[in-house]
Each structure stands twice: as structure tokens, then as C-alpha cells.
Request: fold
Amino acid sequence: MIPLSALRAAADRLAGQIHRTPTWPCHAIGALAGVELWLKCECFQKTGSFKARGALAKIGALPAAARARGLVTVSAGNHAQAVAWAARAVGAACVVVMPTDAPRSKLDAVRGYGAEVVLHDDRATLFDRLREVERARGLVFIHPFDDADVLAGAGTVGLELIEDAPPLAAVVVPVGGGGLLGGVASAVKALSPATRVIAVELADGPGLAPALAAGQPVPAPRPAGTLADGMTPPFVGALPLAIARAAVDDVVGVREHELVDALGLLYTRAKLYVEGSGAAATAAIVAGKLGLPAGARVAAIVSGGNVDPARALAAITS
Reply:
């Protein structure tokens, strides 16, 4: 678990540099699911996702000499943008290894923040390519989801949620590599132990449930053509996995059509412009995956809003 003291230290480090994103009730979508729904809107965060929290928390904790060496990371998009933005904020050079098929909007954003992009064709060997660049240039690696400082930054989402929402029966968190889940679970269980933490992953590309069963990280398949590219890292991190074993009450999977339905609901009923990963928690709630009693107060973390508009519109209207 990330200690509450570390979570609060990260919050102090981030104060004034990120947004305290809104936590809003959403009666229309909640009524469809038979629950009292609250939405934690990280789609309004700097760089468009929760990833800005962990990236800046980690980079801000580095010694000046480490930042001066330059930074490197690997990501399909949201973490890439966050590290590029945070590196620019502290004046550090940044290289990002990204898959060639990453969304164009995310590639453009990373370059717009001033980072160098190294494209790699094979998602299965992205981390291998990252290590090559790291060694060749002597850069400092900012891990997307398996670093205690990154998790502490992400966990500030949970601190804000518990402070801003009424007492919650459950908090529902999308999971890819597990950084958001590990941080939020640590915060929720420290501040509200009775609140259930429920992880949502892609039913066609699970990483967490198989890792929990195996007792260690295992390769996660990538569903072809998913809108939730932020939930498709090659594996769940070891630290998030250890936290999940201690603090996550359930793991559920959502299908692509459920993500698309939730995207449509968030667009039309909540007026939130979100990406597939950002709709995953809401999708699990609306699809009745949680097993909560009628009327339970539940929060969904809307993790990001960096969506390809044409793809999202095509999926919703098809």
C-alpha cells in the first residue's frame, strides 16, 4: 500500500500545478443503473487525464542532477503526454517511446509539449525498445504504472474523491497497468476502509485478474481495435498487483459494446467528452457488473478525455 503520508506529500507537491477535478453526481446515468452515481472527472485534468498527477509527482521528486540527464518513458498516449508536459514544466529533455499505431491526436500532443517521439512497430516489445533508448542515451526512466511516486501522484485522485463525495459504498476504477488503481485503492482504504474498491478491465484483454490468479504479473492480450487503448499495457505492474491483492474487493471485465454504450451515455447525459478508458468504470456500473444493492452510492473514475473524435463518433453512431 502507498502510505497515507506519501499520498498527502504528493498532494502537497502537486498543489497549484494540477487541477482539483470536479466530483459530480449524475442522476440520469445512475437511475439507469439503479444506483446513486458520482463521477470523478479526470477528463478535465491537465493533459486530459489523471496521468499528469503521477508524472509530475515523480519528476518533481527527482534530484536536479537526474532531471538534467533527461527523461524517457513508454506509453500509447496519456502517460506520454503527461511526462512530456511535466518535463517541459521543469525544463528537462524528454524522449517518449510510442507504438506506431498510437492515436494521431496523442502523438501530436506529445510532440506539442516538446518531447522527442521514438516510434516502435511491435507493442509486445515496446519496453525492450525503451530500455535500448534508456541505456544508449543515459536517460532516467519514468515508469507509467510501477513506481511508488507515480502511484502516490495517481492516488491523489482518491484523496480528493473521498473528501469531495458523500460516503461511498464503492469506488470503481479502470485498470490497465494498475497505477491509478494502486494509488486510489491505497487512498480509499486509508480514509474509508468500508468502501469497496472495484477494478474494471477489458474482458477481451485482462491483465489484473490473471495476474492475481498467477500471483505475479503475466502478459496481457491486446483486443484489436479497442477504443480503450489506455487499458492495454503489456502487463499489470508488480506494485499495483501487490496493492490489489491487499485492497481491491473485486475485478470485473467490460466488453467493447458496453464501453461504447457508456461513451454515448457520458456524452449525452453527463455532457462529458471522454475516451474509451475513461468510460470503463461507468460501463461496468451501467452493465450491472458490481453486485451492489439498489440505491447504493458509487463513484466512477472518469480517467481521461483524450479521444479520437472521429473513431468515438463512428462507434457511438454505428
About this structure: The radius of gyration is 18 Å. Residues 148-164 form the longest helix (17 residues). The chain has 14 helices and ten strands.
